[in-house]
Amino acid sequence: MKNILILAGLALFMVACGSQKTAAVASTTTEPSKTVALTPELEAGKNMYENNCAKCHKLYDPKKFTKEEWAPILVRMGKKAKLDETQLASVTDYIHSQL
To answer: From which residue to which does the signal peptide run (predicted)?
Structure first.
């Protein structure tokens, strides 16, 4: 009898977790997509951001900081990554496009 109660409780737990997960997925799929289509220039900036910045640390979501907060970060990190002005502008344009 004890085993049946344990199995029934486990089954209820799994069903409850499964239904919540489905509801969460359903709510996220109904939201309109805010993803900006990337132009070739922005795609190049994204690639530079991902390839140069990830060498030293984890990548931050561009929305984590404002444009004003990103400005000194990009300048400082651009120097450390030895990016030229064109490359830094490309990364900056990509970050700004994601805000």
So the answer is: 1-23
Distance, in Å, from the CA atom of 10 to the CA atom of 65, rounded to the nearest integer, reads 43
47 C-beta neighbours (distance < 10 Å), count:
13
Residues 6+ apart with CB under 8 A from 48: 83, 87, 90, 91, 94
pTM score above 0.70: no
pLDDT attached to residue 25: 46
At 71 the three-state DSSP class reads helix
H/E stretch holding 7: helix 2-30
Q: Give the H/E segment covering residue 11.
A: helix 2-30
